[in-house]
Structures are given as C-alpha cells and as structure tokens.
Design goal:
single chain; mainly alpha; two-stranded antiparallel ribbon; globular
C-alpha cells in the first residue's frame, strides 16, 4: 500500500543517517593513526567498495522489491540452505552494530557525567551498560510505530546530523589550520596502510549503512529508480563529509599534539578532546549533543533494518515461522523487532566498548556483502558483462576479508561454522539439509589459510565464484529459480 511507502528523500536520508553515526566521531583519529596521509585514499576506496556492492543490491531490489531483501537475496538464487550463511552474516553484522552505536554515545558522554562512572579504562562500567540499554529502549520505541514514524524522525535528524559535522569542519578550519601537520611521520606509512585502515580504522564500518535501504525495498516508492539513486547519492554525500572531516582533524591538531606523530594520538573522545584543546567550548557542547543524536539515529535505523531482515529469514524458513507475522496497523513484524532488541541487549552486556565490536561486526558485514554479487550473477542478466562485474565485486570483497587480523578471522569462521552446524541439525530434523550449502563455510576456512597471498586469494575467489554461480551447482543445491 502506497500510504506505507516512502519517497526518494527519505530513501536517501535512511542510509545517510546510518553512515553518519558513531563512525564520524571516531574514524578520523583511527584513520590518521593507521594510514597517515594515505587516510584520504582509504576513504575513497571504502566508498568505492560501498558503491559497487550497493549497485548489486540496487539491481536485486529492482528485480525483487521485497522486505529484507539484503538478508534473503541468496536464498532466492541458491535456496535457503546455501543462503542461510549470508542471511545470518548480514543480519548479525547489522544487529551487533546497534549496541555499538549506543556504546559510542555513552563513551562520548562519559567525561561529562559526574554522578556515576560510565566508562573506565577501555570498557563500559555496569552503569554505562545500563545507560546504553536505556538508549536501546529508545531505538525500540521509535521503530515500534512503523516506517512512517521512523522516516519522520530520520528526516528531521538528518538535517542535524549533516549540519553539526559541517559546522565542526568550518569552525575547526577557522580556529586552527596548520598544513605542516600533513607532512608528519610520512615515512611510517605506505600503500599497505590503506588496507589496514579499511577495517582497522572503521572505514568499511562507517559506510556500512548504504545497505539498509535494501531492507526497506518493499516500502520505497518506485524502487527501480529510487534505490540506486539513494545508494549513490548517500554514499557521495557521506564521502565528501568524511574527507573534509579527515582533512580538518589533521590540520586543526595543535602542534604539541601533532608533533608526536599520528600513531601517538589516543583521545577517548577525539573531536571533543580536540575542541577542548582549542578552547572551543560552544562547539564542544554541540559535539556532545551530536554524540547522542548521530549514533542514536543510526542505531534506531539499524534496528528497523534488522527487524525486516529477521522477518525475511523467517519467511524463507531459516528462522521460526511465527516471527513472520506483520502487524496490520504499522505493517512490520513486532515479534522480529522485540527479538532483535533482546539480542542487542545480550550483545551489549557481553562487549566492552565501541572498538571491541567494530572489527568483528565489519567482518560479518563483508560476508553479507559477498552474497549480493553471487545472487545477482544468477538472478540478473545473462550477459557476460554482468558476470564479469559481479565477479569483480566478489574478488574485491574476498581481498577485503583477507585483511582481517588472524584472530578476528578465526573467531568469525568459528561463529559461522557453529551457526551452520546448528542450522543443519535443525533442518535434518525437519526433513533434510543440502550438504552443498556448506561450500561457502569451507571457502572461508581456505581463504583464511591463503589470505597472506594476494594472488592465491584472487584465484580462490574466482574459482569459487564460477563454481557456485554455475547452473550445475544450482541444480546440486536442488534449487529451482522461479
């Protein structure tokens, strides 16, 4: 029904408010630490990855404008057993980002809350976690009343979320500008620093919000036109903002802090700490306010997206069917929303800080991205150009995944393997499981072993892609395309 659908402006606002979240508060410092002057190239590369994956999702949305499409596109092309690993990865990757956004708010506010200690050492205290749970409750409340209220809150806050970073950039450039800072510690960095920063500095994390628009595919007017436009425009706006912010952060740094080198920076609340060093008290107050608004709007948007993903998984039989029930008034699954809220609290209680969750959630998100080119290669045009484009996207994502630290790669693979083992047992009890569905899990373990070699990673990705997108493999999965 059209009255439940949103237009182009809202479709652009949703990914922008998802991308301008906690990332803008922390990533400028982390990127400077890990990449130095290569930080700007790292931002461009992260945006490029987001665009090529986003266009895959956009094409799939044009073919299948369905609720929670990013969680079920591989199930449409390869069947629910093979698609389960991608659905789980993209759902859990976004879900884990919800408490991360709440943590970011608490961490930024912690120096200014005097009646209790919210953040101590490198982690939230119990008071901090309770405060973060209250913030999660606000996310839940806004989403409870459906897409229209979410879009309204999102549209209003988008202006604030863009204006505060823009004002921050202008004021900092006027208050202190030292181009000599860009020459600091150049010898400590190389092109390989770009790779490290993509995941380690949270750049891929910062752009991850581009995909949430695919979750709302069935609730967007004219999705064939509006979804690709929303993805491209939102990424372009966000890239410009992050590039300017990076430049401003590095040139506005006082000499006594900058001369120690970017790697020595260790601000707990980077932008607030910088404005305090420069004596910009009014901007400090605005940044404190934005540390509440930016992560919160991103978090509530992710919660809305995750509720639609879990609904889509239930609809495909990958989760209990009772979740796939829509509220006739607000046109969403409130059962799915409540489950995501509860799981978000559990994740929050078992994590320490923003940084502790950022890398592992990025890993799950990249795994989810990999499903888009695989699905489009099967469901899209049979032209060789489509095959080559989707192959290129899959190889790029394999190279990105190979950057993961070994410890995080191992944890990621263990989580996926355990999840697929549990899912296989449940499916066998209900009637059957196709063992070819474990091929992607096997691919991940082999990729971890060869990740140190770029050539081996590329060759593995090409071979795997060609096998799993072939008609013969699809028939082995026992899946028939409708």
């Amino acid at each position: 029904m059209q009255r439940h659908k949103i237009g182009l402006f809202s479709a652009i606002a949703i990914p922008i408010t998802s991308m301008v979240g906690s990332g803008w508060l922390f990533s400028a410092q982390l990127n400077a630490q890990l990449a130095g002057n290569y930080a700007f190239i790292a931002w461009i590369l992260a945006a490029f990855i987001a665009i090529i994956v986003g266009l895959c999702f956009a094409r799939l949305c044009a073919l299948f404008p369905e609720r929670g499409l990013n969680a079920k596109c591989v199930s449409l092309s390869h069947g629910k057993d093979f698609g389960m690993v991608f659905a789980f990865a993209i759902w859990f990757g976004l879900l884990a980002m919800i408490p991360t956004e709440a943590q970011a708010t608490v961490q930024y506010l912690s120096p200014f809350v005097k009646f209790t200690t919210l953040y101590h050492g490198d982690s939230l205290t119990w008071s901090g976690k309770i405060f973060a749970i209250v913030i999660l409750g606000v996310y839940f409340s806004v989403n409870y009343f459906g897409i229209k209220l979410l879009a309204y809150v999102n549209n209003v806050s988008t202006v604030f979320k863009i204006s505060i970073p823009t004002l921050t950039i202008i004021v900092l450039l006027v208050a202190h500008f030292d181009a000599a800072n860009l020459d600091l510690a150049v010898n400590h960095y190389s092109v390989s620093s770009i790779q490290t920063a993509l995941i380690g500095a949270g750049l891929v994390y910062a752009f991850n919000g581009f995909q949430v628009v695919a979750s709302f595919a069935s609730e967007i007017k004219n999705p064939t036109r509006n979804i690709p436009l929303a993805i491209i425009i939102s990424i372009a706006i966000t890239l410009a903002l992050y590039m300017l912010l990076q430049f401003t952060f590095m040139t506005a740094m006082p000499q006594e802090a900058a001369e120690k080198g970017w790697a020595a920076l260790n601000f707990s609340s980077p932008l607030v700490n910088l404005t305090m060093l420069l004596g910009l008290n009014f901007l400090t107050i605005l940044l404190i306010a934005d540390s509440i608004v930016s992560p919160s709007i991103t978090g509530l948007t992710y919660l809305g997206s995750c509720s639609r993903m879990l609904y889509a998984m239930a609809e495909k039989g990958q989760m209990p069917r009772w979740i796939a029930k829509l509220c006739p008034v607000h046109h969403l699954s409130k059962r799915s929303l409540l489950l995501n809220f509860i799981i978000g609290i559990i994740v929050l209680l078992n994590s320490a800080s923003w940084a502790s969750l950022m890398v592992i959630t990025t890993a799950f998100n990249v795994l989810g991205y990999m499903g888009a080119p695989l699905s489009l290669a099967v469901l899209g045009s049979k032209k060789i150009s489509t095959k080559l484009m989707t192959l290129f996207v899959f190889v790029v994502l394999a190279l990105l995944l190979a950057i993961l630290p070994v410890k995080d790669f191992l944890l990621n693979n263990l989580a996926i393997t355990i999840m697929m083992a549990v899912y296989a047992v449940l499916q066998l009890k209900q009637g059957g499981f196709n063992w070819f569905a474990l091929s992607f899990t096997l691919f991940l373990w082999v990729l971890m072993l060869v990740a140190s070699s770029i050539i081996a990673t590329i060759m593995l990705a090409i071979v795997f892609f060609l096998i799993v997108t072939s008609e013969r493999f699809i028939s082995k999965l026992g899946h028939r395309l409708s």
